[in-house]
Amino acid sequence: MKNKKKRDLTKMRTPHTYVIIFMVVIAAWLLTFIVPAGKFSTTEVEYKDANGEVATRTVLEQDTFRYDYPLNKEFVFDKLEDLAGNQNELEKLDVAKEDVEGVIKDGESKLSQETLDGINLTDDALYKLYGDKIYDKSEKLHKTAKIWGTDDFNGFGFMNFVFEGLVSGDKYGSAVGIVALILVVGGAFGIIMRTGAIDAGIFAFISKTRGLERLAIPLLFFAFSFGGATFGMAEEVIPFSMVMVPFVIALGYDSIVAVTVTYVASQVGNAASWMSPFSVAVAQGIAGIPVLSGATFRLVMWFVITALSALYLSLYAERIRKNPMKSEVYESDAHFRDQIQKTTDEKKPFLLGHKLILLEMLVVLIWIVWGVTQEGYYIPEIASQFFVMGLVAGIIAVLFKLDEMGWNDIAKSFQSGAADLAGTAIVVGMAKGILLVLGGSDANMPSALNTMLHGVGGLLSGVPAMVGAWAMYVFQSLFNLVVTSNSGQAALTMPIMAPLADLVGVSRQVAVLAYQLGAGFVDAFTPVSASLIGVLGVAHIEWAKWAKFQIKMQGFFFVLGSIFIVIAIAIGLQ
To answer: Are 500 and 460 in contact (CB under 8 A)?
Structure first.
């Protein structure tokens, strides 16, 4: 009898990122069978942004939650007849009398909310007039996706989550905008890497700064944290990571250190920010407190959290530098190590063409930072700027005959660079698909997510102040696992959390603090974050391996966040 090789049950193969996301999609789909759909009415609120200018934001109205019910046709039809004779009310609603009479003529049997929407009698308008009497409350409806289908055939099916996720949104955000940004940036850096300028520059820098490697980590961490704190740096980290990953690995560390010192640092800054226009300013405006108030407390908090986080990373980085094989990503980092070793063995000279390319990159990066901070540049502009960076670098390389590059090599390098990040771009769409399966994040559309949001708000009312504030922090952290847009999360949660803070007995400033800490830290962990997935793709790190490292750091962040929540309550932060 042959001896069978025993399976080592202590070693579990890490599931692919696609597998993890698909399992989350299945779980989200099953959840919609259990949790009925609900919605809120929404309204436009005005607030002063970080620049002191008046801005508007669509937010939910706290006391307008209702489950998704079938229409009470009999009641609504009777009210339509009354409404047709009330010209003043029709004018307020901006509804034509002829349209109402047309619906009445069709009869009660053909009455539906879609028909009423067509004449501007929306669910919100009817609810405001008549309350929940417009619903047949004998049955709560569930918004559950079909197994297969599209919007045009059979309705949205969860098996179509990849396509629907990829085409959702617009060029200014996830998923379409982020996917396009990733592909364009990947192509641009494909050209830049082909020139050999980054490899030669890193080799020249390290040769002249040996012994100073330990200073690089904390300095870079503070720099990226400052970017996150001041202008909400997130998507902007993706192109920076193209340079930072090989640079950090060349210093003797691993790609986990590279992602942490760039993207995680930016989210630490975002979490502890005193002025981010995309998180603190929006949340404070919605909560009805002065924008950028509490800045002194937050400045101290930012410095302390950033310093402690940099120390945490430095300890890990030093452990990896002494024994690189302890890294979870030692094998996947071989790609970068081999490239660096090749440059070292060949002893590539740092030529004038290389220097001009790096100088051009620096100029474009300064242009990007200026555009984001001063002119409000966002994804379309940033993508265009990086395309210019890559194209100019390619032209310089051809003119200076770097690595014997020709004009066709520019095109081929752009193609291969974009292809390298195509898998990452797909992950961004898949992650957005999770939200679509849950019904979307629109407060005005029935979804399981709205029902869960309302349920948490009800659970927190009436608890002690300290417990309530900490529970808000926990909730905001968990909510960010699904909704990763900082301004979007503020619009969904702050209209509930701000008045809830009044009931619990804590200041609205503390409610904003709980929001920003939860929304910031977890962005460095959740697989739904398009920016994180983009950076991980650049670093060739699977999310599951990243999670093994980051889950411990998230625990560290959670402790720090909890401490500052307690301090804020203890000193009566207003």
So the answer is: yes
